[in-house]
Design a protein that fits this description.
The protein has about 600 residues and is α/β, with parallel strands linked by helices. Helices cover about 40% and strands about 25% of the residues. Strand 23, helix 18 and strand 24 form a beta-alpha-beta unit. Helix 4 packs across helix 5 and helix 8 (about 265-270) packs parallel to helix 14 (about 400-420). The two termini are about 30 Å apart.
Length: about 600
């Protein structure tokens, strides 16, 4: 997730404040950084890939003149980490600078249009279309605010932007849609930033920009307007008394909880993938004689769920494989007709890359799904997709899991359409469900948090848990159990409920909590039988089920109500969220730090 900061001062230099803000934004994760200031009618720009301190030692941000400027930390989604792709981005004349956090869905069509008009692009980013669109407006006679307004009205996707220009060197123009952006009010100074920590050292007074708003910052004050109609908006400042540490977590006590609640936004961004990349990967998968989904840990659980998606939606047999077992299990049989879809949040997972290298040597087609542009996986894949969920600081994967699921679901749908396996009605219905998933996740978070917190308090001292599901939600059970293991260290088991009589039921006795993932799908009848078996042996059943499923609610000791009408193949996306929260709150009840579980690392890059 990129980070933005801007400031306009009545006295003093902007560069030290911008540099301090960049350092405060480091916690968000980044691969490059840059800064632009204006002084004496000239725009100054410095940027590069790498760590902020290393960039500063090479370029010296501190000697940039001027009392107005913008700066940026970048987490790549379009274009690998490089100086050219770092922000700020400029227009052709070098007089307009833009920093941006978000994903522009229609940047390719805008870029083609602008190139046809003679604009020259220097990066592979989606952001660079914005300064060129603004340049078009300025050349047509619009002032800077009008040109930015005209530009953002053409953008589809998410954005928080800050714009400066030598055309009007006393203003910063900000605009927001979905990506966070706040304005700070200081003594003879105004600030903008992606979040509060960047500028908390300089002010405690803030105004939150809402979706669809544009703001003009100048030493004369701040004006807020609606993007849709240009009408003025009255905004009320608020005061923050957080510490820097708490502010970095946006008021949440831990990064894990913050990232769980970021899932509606991360899913929206994962739905904004470029059509041609999805089509390219889908065509490769369609051509494969065999398709292997190769991953580790949480990503493997996403692949397990995806194997059901490909089978049910596209009628494709896709084999989910734990990466560390791939060579032993399939190494001698994989070949030129096979497709390997490797899934790794970091793109650097040792076992995944080892499997990929072997598959490449045997001429298999290697595809990648990762969250990190420029990672090894993106370099060795024939084609890849970036899931666009932003950096994840908590060790236990949450938003990256649901983002992987929604990307894999999109691929399964496209392969199904290539093969003619979906009717138009089925395709439209599933597409609508995918588009509505961010809103569904938001509702789940709002409705279940208090209930989950109470259940965590009740069961925090239990020393054994059992997670059961059927069909695609075996993957949900496995992932829910993994979250609990990772951050609470509680011995737990997860199985297909169909396998409970083949061993797991032997450990069930009075008071053992058994968590059932029980949507209203084709396995519901069997799940009800499994619940009754567990109840007969004294288990305390916690059921995740539809909010009006009276039969399951009547059987369970406790239930977590879930929205109705979720397609079976998408059910792991919302149904994992209460289990993420449950693991988090059990850890908190036990006095453990969920962000830093013992013995675990965010990315496993060694054997």
């Amino acid at each position: 997730m990129c980070g933005i900061i801007g400031c306009i001062l009545s006295s003093g230099l902007a560069a030290p404040i911008l540099f301090s803000g960049l350092k405060r934004l480091e916690y968000r994760g980044y691969d490059s950084a840059g800064m632009a200031t204006i002084y004496g009618g000239k725009l100054y720009l410095k940027k590069d890939s790498g760590k902020i301190d290393d960039i500063n030692s090479r370029l010296n941000f501190m000697d940039m003149p001027g009392s107005l400027g913008i700066a940026h930390t970048r987490w790549a989604t379009h274009g690998a980490p490089s100086r050219e792709n770092a922000h700020p981005h400029l227009d052709c004349s070098g007089t307009i600078a833009v920093v941006h956090n978000g994903v522009i869905e229609n940047f390719l069509e805008l870029k083609r249009e602008l190139e046809d008009r003679g604009h020259k692009f220097t990066s592979r980013t989606d952001t660079e279309v914005i300064p060129h669109l603004i340049e078009e407006g300025v050349k047509s006679g619009l002032n800077l605010y009008e040109a930015v307004l005209q530009a953002v009205r053409r953008l589809r996707g998410s954005y928080a932007i800050a714009v400066i220009s030598t055309v009007e060197p006393d203003k910063i123009i900000c605009a927001r849609n979905e990506s966070p952006l706040i304005v700070g009010i200081g003594d003879g100074a105004y600030y903008c930033a992606s979040d509060i920590p960047a500028i908390l050292e300089y002010t405690r007074n803030f105004i939150s920009m809402d979706n669809g708003e544009i703001a003009v910052l100048s030493l004369g004050g701040i004006e807020f307007r609606r993007i849709s109609d240009g009408e003025f908006v009255l905004k009320k400042p608020f005061t923050v008394d957080w510490s820097i540490e708490l502010a970095e977590k946006q008021g949440y006590p831990h990064f894990m909880l913050k990232e769980i609640y970021e899932q509606p936004l991360s899913l929206r961004n994962a739905l904004r993938l470029q059509e041609q990349y999805l089509d390219l990967l889908s065509r490769f998968i369609d051509r494969g004689e065999r398709v292997f989904l190769v991953a580790c840990g949480t990503s493997y659980h996403a692949c397990l769920a995806a194997s059901y998606m490909f089978s049910k939606i596209a009628r494709v047999a896709a084999f989910p494989v734990v990466a560390s077992e791939f060579l032993e299990q399939y190494g001698d049989s994989v070949g030129i007709d096979d497709v390997i879809l490797a899934v790794s949040q970091s793109g650097e997972t040792y076992d995944v890359l080892r499997a990929v290298d072997h598959a490449r040597m045997r001429a298999a087609t290697v595809l990648g799904l990762t969250n990190t542009v420029g990672s090894t996986l993106t370099r060795v894949s024939r084609a890849y997709i970036v899931q666009q969920s932003g950096p994840e600081i908590g060790v236990a994967a949450t938003k990256t899991f649901t983002s992987q699921l929604i990307v894999l679901a999109q691929l399964a749908m496209r392969v199904a359409n290539l093969r003619g396996k979906l009717s138009q009605q089925e395709s439209d219905s599933l597409r609508d469900s995918l588009k509505g998933m961010p809103e569904v996740i938001g509702r789940v978070l709002n409705s279940c948090a208090d209930n989950v917190k109470l259940l965590a308090k009740r069961y925090a001292k239990k020393n054994l848990f059992l997670f059961l599901g059927r069909g695609i939600n075996v993957a949900t059970a496995l992932e829910g159990r993994l979250k609990l293991l990772e951050i609470t260290y509680t011995p737990s088991l997860a199985f297909s409920a169909a396998e409970s009589k083949h061993g797991p039921i032997s450990i069930v006795e009075k008071g053992v909590p058994v968590i059932f993932i029980a949507p209203r799908d084709s396995t519901r009848k069997e799940i009800i039988g499994n619940i009754m078996e567990m109840k007969a042996r004294g288990a305390e059943v916690i059921a995740l089920c539809e909010e009006d499923d009276r039969e399951i609610i009547g059987l369970a000791d406790h239930h977590i109500p879930m929205p109705k009408g979720i397609p079976d193949v998408l059910s792991p996306i919302p149904y994992i969220v209460p289990l993420q929260l449950f693991a988090y709150y059990v850890a908190v009840e036990r006095g453990l730090d969920p962000d830093k579980p013992r013995n675990l690392a965010k990315s496993v890059t060694v054997p």
